[in-house]
Amino acid sequence: MALDLTTDIKITWCPGCPNSQILVAFRQAVEEFVSAGTMELHNIVAGAGVGCHGKISDYLEVNSFNSLHGRMVPSLTGIKLANPKLNVVGFSGDGDSFSEGFNHITHAARSNSDISIFLHNNQVFALTTGQATATSPKGFKGGTMPEGSINEPINPALIMLTMGATFIARTFASDIKKTKEIMKEAMLHKGFAFVEIIQPCITFFDTREYYKERVYWLDDKHKKSNLDSAFKVARMNTADKVPCGIIYQTSKPTFEELV
Amino acid sequence: MLRVETECSFIYMTDSNTNSTGTHLAIKTIAIGGAAGDGVREAGINFSELFTELGYKTFSSFDYPSLIRGGHNYARISYSVNTVYADYRELDVLIAVNAESVRVHQHSLRAGARVFVEEAYLPEIADLGIAVIPLPMKKIAEELKAPQVARTSSAFGAYGYTLGIPLNQLKALADKVYANVGSEMNVALVEKGYAHMKKMQYPQDECAIPTEHGIVGEVTDGNKAIAKGFLAAGLEAYVGYPMTPSTSTLQFLAKMSKKTGLKVVHPEDEIAVLNMALGMSYAGKRVAVGTANGGFALMQETFSLAGVSEIPIAILVSMRMGPATGVATHTSQGDLQFILHAGHGEFPRLVIAPGDVEECFECAADALNLAWKYQIPAVVLSDKHLSESYKSVTLDTKSKGPDYGKRAVPVGTHYVRYKITEDGVSPLAFPGKANVVVKVTSYEHNEEGEAVESAEEVQAMQDKRFRKLNGLYQDFAWFPTVKTYGDEWSDVVIVFWGSTKGAVLEAHKQLKTPAKLVQILWMEPFDADRVKAELNGARVIVDVEANHTAQLAALIREKTSIEIHNKVLKYDAQPFTPTDLANEINKFL
Prior knowledge:
The complex is a heterodimer of chains A (259) and B (589). Chain A has 259 residues and is of the alpha/beta class. Chain A has one domain: Thiamin diphosphate (ThDP)-binding fold, Pyr/PP domains (Rossmann fold, 3-Layer(aba) Sandwich). Chain A is built from nine helices and eight strands. Chain A has an eight-stranded mixed β-sheet with strand order 2-1-3-4-6-5-8-7, sandwiched between helices. The termini of chain A are far apart. Chain B is an alpha/beta fold and 589 residues long. Chain B has four domains: 9-216, Pyruvate-ferredoxin Oxidoreductase, domain 3 (3-Layer(aba) Sandwich), CATH 3.40.920; 219-399, Thiamin diphosphate (ThDP)-binding fold, Pyr/PP domains (Rossmann fold, 3-Layer(aba) Sandwich); 406-479, no CATH class; 482-586, Rossmann fold (3-Layer(aba) Sandwich), CATH 3.40.50. An eight-stranded mixed β-sheet of chain B has the order 7-6-5-2-4-3-16-9, with helices on both faces. Chain B has a seven-stranded mixed β-sheet with strand order 11-10-12-13-15-14-21, sandwiched between helices. In chain B, strand 22 (540-545), helix 19 (551-560) and strand 23 (566-569) form a beta-alpha-beta unit. In chain B, helix 8 (222-232) packs parallel to helix 14. The radius of gyration of chain B is 26 Å and the shape is globular.
């Protein structure tokens, strides 16, 4: 029996926006978990920040906490701490968690808070019509730096690895099946799970072709439990190749068990 | 109360109003001064406990700079057989651990004050021409191989000798009070201090100590009372970030977390503090948060989130002198208006300002309960002087219990988190219940918790939230929104709030004319009818507060149209002290 996770709210993402693919991947992940009896629907809580990604909260008939811009992460830790039976995930964006909310996502990774973060990385503040974020390339021409961004971008997967995240993965939104599988792995992971989802913004920074040429999937040769291999992969120069898949996974006591 | 065979005569506490004129003359004040690292604060707490054990009521404040070593620290303990509401600036006793202490307090010494000075520093203060009692605290500690930080214990023995209290009684007191930190060593220090004075043949008073009538339960401060108030109201979690003067609530609760299962978290910054707490509350835990005024400044957007998302939350905000980093370890009442208008956007909130340690307990319990009853943010507004001063009290911890508010039991119907109701309060459910979807959001929303922008939906939700105030207005009848003291029939009215209460109650004993004392506790919502009833018809009204812009007077005028012209305003980072305050108020009488 198919689960209906839709709400009455009309989707307002641009037609063709990869956010719609991420929504489908998550709904499928939840449907599979629930029908397999792995999780109860009422135990799932989905957080969202503010940005185009954040609208996902209105499109999911699931417990949700649509937080302030950049401030979703600590509220998810609070939710998990208050009721460890809940399966806590959060949808965020590169602006939401790597500009505004940097202090929170880094500390959550460090503390190994048992939550899963699905980061819609489109390398732009799209909802506010196209400014550079912490992950935008140098020279990116957006509203606040029309001559081109003067700053180097940061690498979310590398930051998460440095901060001690125990599950780090990267996926590409258009591959709904792989995205769904990685989401499921993240949700099953006990500890802080970070999934960077490359989500090209078709309106303000269309990188679909760029990434299609460069994305490749890590195979079994990659030792995801080995920190050195993980650093090598995370540090790769994305000008040539963009590795996707599970980059790192390990086990550590979680924040919520230790408090 | 310690019962020891004594030759002392007894002072009986009178049943009459302990606040009556003249009773301040029975109050004695001791100051202990030294540098940071000399154990001055601990000595102050110990002295207040020792005098409480002796049967006195005490009030102690602690003055310390924002550093770890050096500077000047002092503890000031006022004690009396009657309740002491505030410590006095004028000293009957000074225990100077270093020379600087004598210099700092020389103009506050009463005639005939007993000034115990560390013997080693006598030459440094010879130029002051003050009669002092040399006490070799350092040497005594060395001889007993006691840590230097405990050396002031010998001064208790020395002062006790001058009061004519028998040695066995002093030793018994020390044995009890120092039980957790090494009573044997401290008892020995007390004994040496006593022996030193005896050897000097220093004159002794006729011993007179209080009886055990009406002896109080403990000596504690505002921050601990607030913690106990939250606990009495069913606290399950506390989130905070260290910032003077709120830190001790966080650390007091952290200490009991392992034993009691209370979740206590200190996250990366104050923004995380409040967001994390809202997450916990959304998931069903009764949680409170604590911070200082500067930390609360960081929480503004999240406070606004609490308002729109209707997630219950209680917040301790303790003020220190601002602006910005300000005078970090000193007191102020400079943020009343800031707190009243906290968080962008308009939404109901509760702001209660306790005035003493007992009210800290009661108001904290009320704040947590009312936060849940109305699903609003509730602030307990304190300040350094109230949070950190110690007072002899008996907290009636059984007088407050948890009130869980309106819970949802949806059977067959589709649950919506923000159901529009007549009283504005929606039934509350938490994630994890089958067939119940709980959606909360920072956006303006419909009943489901989905973002909306239409005029009708926006207005409907704003109106719903503001309707909650009607319930709070009804609650005025059940809570002490305003309290009156002193001469209730008088046409002279002194109005005040927060920690200023103590100094006003003491100052009352030295006023030129009888006066009614009006304390405002509930700042928002404001009980305008009650305040009008207490202030209308007054011939003279004097507003007393520790800020520059007379913020309570402004609030009173806003809510009642009563304009107060006479103001005593103190904004030098120091608390009011009774005699100085009485002199200022008397100028208007």
